[in-house]
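Retry 2 of 3 after timeout on previous attempt. Resubmitting structure tokens to design endpoint.
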């Protein structure tokens, strides 16, 4: 675990530096409250590991990794407003702590800081812009048109969660100056991991308790949100098997990519398994 902790520390230190530099101080404090309150840092870890897997230095991917985490947190702020969730990671959500207006400004601020980090590389800007279009389409679809089949649900999960996972991996490969084919392959791996993550998230929302999750449980059913257990007739165990299938597909994709750092790849394999087995 020390291996991963060192990489997470790189991300955490850079996050603190970026957020501390935001002006005015009140906004900086709100952004810190949103981002530094916790989180698994899965997406930025993917960026660093992919960078290393193709022979890059993780230091070269830190800014892109931090940018992905800022975009992710910005999306959570908006999600909590839409869902009227007053808890996030065991603490008051942004709108609950600051009010709706300041929370929206905080979300905008996080996106602005993220794109300042991506702006050094044209390929990075394209990867993240495409992911944010997908994310926006997913959020709109979730509100406007409940998926009516497992295939439609999977498409929603790909947009809502898979797209940003994909961008995280692509950014890591871009930071290592990988070729387009390698960038695409790692993106496909991460997209499938992201879909598995979302399916498992839906299962946990239906089966775990709020203390375990650090946020309200049963929220998908209460808000009539399109989780896999709402859209299909699958039991939680069967839905988890769907997540396992996505993770297995991600692992198959990963095995086909030429790599230079086997240890980093081994942690990417572990991640594909973790998203299915996690309990929070």
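Retry 2 succeeded. Sequence:
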């Amino acid at each position: 675990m020390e291996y991963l902790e060192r990489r997470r520390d790189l991300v955490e230190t850079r996050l603190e530096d970026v957020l501390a530099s935001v002006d005015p101080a009140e906004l900086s404090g709100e952004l810190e409250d949103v981002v530094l309150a916790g989180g698994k840092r899965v997406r930025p870890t993917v960026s660093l590991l992919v960078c290393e897997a193709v022979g890059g230095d993780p230091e070269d991917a830190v800014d892109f990794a931090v940018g992905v985490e800022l975009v992710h947190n910005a999306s959570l702020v908006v999600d909590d407003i839409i869902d009227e969730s007053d808890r996030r990671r065991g603490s008051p959500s942004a709108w609950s702590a600051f009010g709706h207006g300041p929370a929206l400004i905080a979300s905008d601020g996080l996106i602005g800081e993220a794109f300042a980090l991506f702006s050094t590389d044209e390929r990075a800007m394209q990867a993240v812009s495409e992911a944010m279009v997908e994310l926006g389409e997913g959020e709109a679809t979730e509100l406007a048109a409940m998926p009516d089949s497992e295939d439609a649900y999977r498409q929603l999960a790909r947009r809502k969660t898979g797209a940003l996972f994909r961008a995280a991996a692509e950014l890591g490969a871009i930071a290592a100056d990988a070729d387009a084919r390698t960038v695409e392959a790692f993106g496909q791996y991460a997209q499938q991991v992201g879909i598995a993550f979302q399916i498992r998230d839906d299962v946990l929302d239906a089966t775990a308790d709020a203390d375990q999750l650090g946020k309200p449980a049963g929220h998908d059913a209460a808000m009539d949100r399109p989780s896999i257990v709402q859209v299909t007739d699958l039991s939680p165990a069967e839905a988890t098997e769907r997540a396992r299938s996505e993770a297995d597909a991600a692992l198959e994709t990963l095995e086909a990519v030429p790599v230079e750092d086997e240890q980093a790849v081994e942690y990417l394999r572990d991640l594909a398994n973790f998203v299915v087995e996690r309990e929070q």
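Attempt log closed. The mean pLDDT is 92.
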